[in-house]
Design a protein that fits this description.
Blueprint lengths: L2 H8 L22 E2 L2 E6 L2 E6 L3 E3 L2 E4 L5 E3 L4 E4 L2 E2 H22 L5 H14 L1 H5 L7 E6 L4 E7 L5 E4 L2 E4 L3 H11 L6 H18 L15 E6 L2 E4 L2 H17 L10
């Protein structure tokens, strides 16, 4: 056994690069984490939504954190993982897109933006190995193809284009299961927004780290759309109307809309 092995066994937080702090608390548990982000395409665009809860261990660290942002005029990014690092990554990503456009005189293509984000995630691999992971969901309107596109990532910066819909974060399994039943490729913009809100509701129903709509404080998911007209954030009143309809329907059937068997 080496000296490093002995030090790691006796004092897990004493070695450089350790994921465990000196008092035995994992570094990842010291930082707020953001959770579920969902996105779905529809004819004419793509919609993205995120819940508003940040957790720190078993505590609710924040009830109204925002995890979905406009990256530029035609694209948007949702963050899951270590909130502080994720928000900083979004700020840097936005600055770099703006810088590219000023230098080149034209915006980066949607694929180029997705590739650049992948390289930034790869740069965070060291911290990700210590538990401080950031896994964004990127989506936007592609003016060349004339469609909305969705991209997901892994911790090493692997980039994957998704079809129809996708979700990331601790509640993503439940959100994706919900969208499998509710999503249709002929949904209009309002229908797609309703589907992602339903998916977040289902995620919050089964995942304690995902926050559901807070009716008493009127804190609702952040919902954004990217279309040929650009990125638009739905107002609180618009999202509130969708949430009110979803909650009213759940009062009759708490598990949500029933999908046909065949």
């Amino acid at each position: 056994m080496t000296i490093a092995d002995l030090a790691a066994a006796g004092s897990p937080g004493s070695l450089p690069g350790s994921s465990t702090a000196a008092d035995g608390t994992r570094a990842a548990e010291l930082a707020p984490h953001g959770t579920t982000i969902v996105a779905a395409g529809f004819p004419g665009g793509v919609v993205m939504a995120g819940d508003r809860r940040a957790t720190m261990g078993n505590m609710i660290a924040q009830r109204d954190i925002e995890k979905v942002f406009a990256a530029d005029e035609y694209s948007m990014i949702g963050i899951a993982g270590t909130a502080g690092i994720a928000v900083e990554l979004v700020r840097l990503f936005r600055v770099e897109l703006e810088h590219y456009e000023k230098i080149e005189g034209a915006p980066l293509s949607l694929s180029g933006k997705a590739n650049h984000l992948a390289s930034m995630i790869r740069g965070n691999l060291g911290l990700a190995m210590q538990g401080l992971m950031v896994l964004p969901l990127f989506a936007g309107w592609d003016p060349v193809r004339g469609v909305g596109r969705i991209f997901s990532y892994d911790a090493t910066g692997g980039r994957y284009e998704e079809t129809a819909f996708h979700a990331v974060g601790s509640g993503s399994t439940y959100a994706r299961g919900s969208l499998k039943k509710l999503y249709r490729d002929d949904l209009d913009a309002e229908g797609a927004a309703t589907a992602v809100v339903q998916a977040l509701y289902d995620a919050a129903d089964d995942d304690s780290a995902t926050g559901g709509p807070d009716l008493t404080r009127r804190i609702f998911p952040v919902v954004m759309m990217a279309t040929a007209d650009g990125v638009r954030r739905l107002t609180d009143d618009e999202v509130g109307e969708i949430v009110d309809r979803v909650v009213a329907a759940r009062m009759q059937r708490p598990d949500g809309p029933a999908a046909p068997l065949l």
